[in-house]
Design brief:
heterodimer, A: about 375 residues, mainly alpha, 3-stranded antiparallel β-sheet, two-stranded parallel sheet, elongated, B: about 325 residues, globular
Amino acid sequence: MQEQSEEKSESTSQQKSVKKSPNFWAETWQRFKGRKMAMLALIYIGFLGFVAVFAPAIAGTKPVICKYKGHIYFPALGYFRRQWENPIFQKDKFRNRYPENLEKKDADSWAIWPLVYQDPYRRVYDDEWKGLPGNPTQETGSPSLRNWFGTDQRGVDVFAQMVHGTTIALLVGFVSMGIAGVIGIIVGALAGFYGKWIDMGLSRLIEVVMCIPTLILILAIIAIIDSPTIWHMMAIIGCTGWTGIARLARAEFMKLRESDFVLAAKTTGIGQFRIIFRYILPNSLAPVLVPITFGIAAAILIESGLSFLGFGAPPPNPSWGTLLNLGRQNLQMWWLIFFPGMAIFLAVLAYNLIGEGLQEASDPRLRDA
Amino acid sequence: MFSYLVRRLFIGVITLVLITFIIFGLIRNMPGTPISVNMAMIDPGKELNTADIKRMEKAYGLDKPWYQSYGVWVRNVLQMDFGRSISRKQPVARLIKERMGPTLILSLSSLLLTYLLAIPMGLYSSARQGKLDERTVGTILYMLYSFPSFVAALFLQIYLANKLGWLPLYGMKSDGYASMTATQQAWDIFKHALMPVICYTYGSLAYYSRFIRANMHEVLRQDYIRTARAKGLGPITVLVKHAFRNTFIPLVTLIGLTLPSLLGGSVIIERIFSWPGMGQLYFESILERDYPTIMGLTLMFSILTLAGQLLADIFYAMADPRVKIADH
């Protein structure tokens, strides 16, 4: 695909009268850019990605950069992985109380702090940060200047939990649909390209997976795994959510295998594997991306729904759905429901908008509409 | 037609066997048995001696490996015996029948409401295509479509039940239900059902009206619409009689595909509102490791899903003379 269009653009550069034909992806991107809502949604997802990557710098109780006993450290990395927090802080018995300990143990130390001094895993106590009171607990934790989105029953800041929960929300979508996309495209490609009994068998497989209720499958597998993590859940969501992608890929491959460029490739003696992945796949990818995008939205819903039912990521991991579950236990604390609820809604909305924009940008029948 | 049906049924049976086999294997391999889970729930301190456990396992057929039990289960199902629930000590068939009513109350009223509202809304928005009001309604519907129903359920609970106190927070019946008159009973259930029905409806309403609008959009560009307009028919006649009738086909197929969700209920919504329906039963029986109930429900859902797909195809062929079901 890429090569073809490059060659074409070279030949057309000499004869200026012929308009350069843009390649398929560039064309789709052009049309996608024209849709304001879809672009806005894309920017929003980019923003979420930014929040996820810089979560420890936005909300946390560990300094982003600090100088301690003559060395520069990045303790905030500990939020990504425990091991990335330099062991010296454990050895010097900081116990996650950085402000007082830095001052006490090394007078020359300095630190750059996260924007919001709040922790997603624990309550901030009295006087932890230069004379400020600790977080309120239970119903008194309504949103305030110090706790923008309030605090939960234990007094843990909701804003910090949501910022750190963004990672899970984004990862769930990408990882699970990445798995689903690979399975779906391979199954759909084989069924559509070879047809006959391979198609028969794979179509039955698709039907079976479609009929199995997702929830029971997820609950059963989570029960079987000894200590389920968020990664197991992503894998399960991915392994059950590929049927729509496979059906679409199958239809696309059935359509394209009869087309002239495939015939041309066949006559030049190119292997079937190469035809499937280098010739047909790039041309069928844009329509297949549509159910993948919608699938990301669905995966976010499934994950938050499962966390909401209490089967989600194990407790210490902050997740939007887990917050909702906390809120459900006490409806007086509306902020535990409102903010995570809106976050889930906006993420789902954004992916739906992107999916629709992609659909209309890549579907030739909808171009004039 | 006949041989098509036979073929579809044959394939359907194979699919059913595969699904039930997979689910049976999965649930039997979940840690914990109905007996151990049940004991832990009643009294954590009380422990059965091994002889008793052995005896109970034998009584429920848990002593055999799961693939043998699957054979027994299939043989029983073929004789229309779905087994007895282990944790509830009731026949599975009766248990499902009991829970079907509450779920149908929600799903049928929501389906009816959806169609009653979605068709006029879809027609309205295709009549006023591109105008400000249509775009506003369209945007709102799109937002509703993306709004997670369990978040909506919690918002409704906070506002309508907790803050305003208009509606009961959860459950299906009030405490004094038995002593009420028939109209009071109906009113009581109506009040309890209102919030779950809203949660069920708004999403599908948004979906259906957008679906109708999209189909109308395609039909309205056809030549016969131009002809109808050219011969001087009024806009409403054109829209309803000429255009809308031709969007009926995809709408009919959609009904076939909603069949499983009619009886399936939604686990999350039913749990939030403590509604005694099928979704709740499913969830509880998974927690209780109640194998016969899980299998009965799985069988029902799978049959409904397959039947829904088949019905959709048959409806499609009946409603659209261009589609012919091929005999081969």
